[in-house]
Amino acid sequence: MMWGAISQVEVGPLVRVQGKIDGQGYLDLFRYRLRRTYPGLYNNNLIFQDDNANAHIFKVVNEWFGKYGINRLGWPSKSPDFNSDKIPNSRPNF
Asked: How far apart are CA 33 and CA 15, in angstroms?
């Protein structure tokens, strides 16, 4: 599995992940990388988005985001990706 981060101004790190990941593994994976790549997360200039995968909603993850005051974009559980190829009738007919 690969983990990566992007913003409208830059591409963050791409990291190879071995095996399954839990909440603590998720935090270990990105917390230091995010601070270096996206310091605006820590002063509320950016909003973090993840997709409510199990590792993203562990209590330890939610507490960490709260502790550092990082704004998260609300995301419906089990929602489809924004990839228009996966959403029926979302592609224009030319």
From this structure: 10
- Kindly report the number of other CB atoms within 10 A of residue 26's CB atom: 22
Distance CA 66, CA 46 (A): 15
CATH architecture, range 2-86: 2-Layer Sandwich (3.30)
Spans in the chain with pLDDT lower than 70: 77-94
Within 8 A by CB and 6+ apart from 88, the residues are none
Tokens of 20: 């399954």
- Report the C-alpha gap between 23 and 20 in whole angstroms: 10
The closest alpha carbon to 68, from 88, 41, 34, belongs to 41
pTM above 0.90, yes or no: no
Tokens at 1, concatenated: 């599995």
